[in-house]
Amino acid sequence: MGPGKRVLVTGGAGFLGSHLCERLLARDCEVLCLDNYFTGRRQNVAHLLGHPRFELMRHDVTFPLYVEVDEIYNLACPASPVHYQFDPVQTTKTSVHGAINMLGLAKRTRAKIFQASTSEVYGDPQIHPQTEDYRGNVNPIGPRACYDEGKRCAETLFFDYHRQHKVRIKVARLFNTYGPRMHPNDGRVVSNFIVQALTGKPITLYGDGTQTRSFCYVDDMMDAFLALMDTPDEFTGPVNLGNPGEFTMRELAETVLKLTGSTSAIEFHPLPADDPMQRCPDITLAKAKLGWQPTIALAQGLERTIAYFRGVL
Ligand code: NAD
Ligand code: UDP
Ligand code: UDP
């Protein structure tokens, strides 16, 4: 990625997309931010609207798009289980038809294309920590399948467009990422716990709280996105991106309570179906190929995220 590149960001008004647009503008790119505002908000990019190299467009990636670009970051897809399960058929269409359209666009314009895939391709993993060669343990007919299988099929399409049409691809498997600009009603665990702690509502802990996740702060994730896009064309991924620090959801709840100084009680709720019991990235490949590793520890990232939510609530 060099100065003056025309870069398309799908899902650009979402949590990660809005941070990416900022980082690309700082690199002198021309940014076309595309979103249908299902879970994203214009507010997330409102501060970029006056920028001479920024353009915002309402569009749904399940429909074709004809624009001229040099690079594409395909982030369009609801990421929170609450939102991707709200209209599961649309979720699969977004991942699959969206991938076909963006790959068709990449093929025609010879653009390099990045796919925001997910650790959910590993399902409820039986290999721990997860390496890229693990093929996963996904329930194809469960409530998470619209997202998991949609993202898996998108990976298939990326690799087939690469093999069949020589499209230059970069497939990243993101593990749980958090930070400022997550929607207060996003429904994912970090924003839920922080909002609950700050508003004195009970902390909703699902299951017995022994399930684990590994949380990456958004700034670290953006460094990884840009480093991956800059790797030589031979490197396609898939590559795990995430922070290998692993925590139980109970530890997360207790840390959020401590950092906010909240007196909220912890309230236990049933564990949702197919909720993965453990998740932690092996990032050996990312370290080797991207020269990247996360630098922001959970407590530090949570402090910044809590400060953000204090400002908006
Ligand atoms: P988000 O929900 O904030 O952002 C997704 C964006 O995509 C939203 O702005 C939404 O309006 C937009 N969108 C959804 N369907 C669309 C469609 N059909 N056409 C156009 N735009 C559409 O979530 P996020 O955390 O920013 O996630 C961004 C991407 O990263 C997603 O593809 C997600 O699957 C992936 N990812 C995120 C995480 C994470 O922890 N944040 C982990 C793994 C993968
Ligand atoms: N497409 C698009 N923009 C483009 C080129 C293609 O949205 O600039 C869409 C188009 O709708 C097509 C899809 O991408 O259905 C896949 O394109 P491809 O060229 O692979 O397939 P074909 O056009 O042969 O169906
Ligand atoms: N979770 C929770 N309380 C909440 C939201 C989520 O205990 O209010 C749990 C959820 O059951 C899962 C973990 O936190 O085990 C991460 O959930 P999230 O929806 O953030 O993302 P996932 O990694 O499951 O896609």
Secondary-structure blueprint of this entry?
Elements: E1 6-10, H1 15-26, E2 30-35, E3 54-58, E4 71-74, H2 81-84, H3 88-109, E5 112-118, H4 145-165, E6 169-174, E7 177-178, H5 189-198, E8 203-206, E9 212-214, E10 216-217, H6 218-229, E11 239-241, E12 246-248, H7 249-260, E13 266-269, H8 284-290, H9 298-312
Helix pairs in contact: 1-6, 3-4, 5-7, 5-9, 7-9
Give structural notes:
- With 313 residues, the protein is α/β, with parallel strands linked by helices.
- The chain has a domain at 6-178 and 216-242 and 281-295: 3-Layer(aba) Sandwich (Rossmann fold).
- The protein is built from 9 helices and 13 strands.
- The strands form 4 sheets. The chain has a 7-stranded parallel β-sheet, with helices on both faces. It has a two-stranded parallel sheet with strand order 7-10. Strands 8-13 form a two-stranded parallel ribbon.
- Strand 5, helix 4 (145-165) and strand 6 form a beta-alpha-beta unit.
- The longest helix is centred in the N-terminal third of the chain and has 22 residues, at 88-109.
- The model has no long low-confidence stretch (mean pLDDT 98).
- It binds nicotinamide-adenine-dinucleotide and uridine-5'-diphosphate (UDP) (2 copies).
- One uridine-5'-diphosphate is lined by residues 64-66, 100-101, 104-105, 107-108.
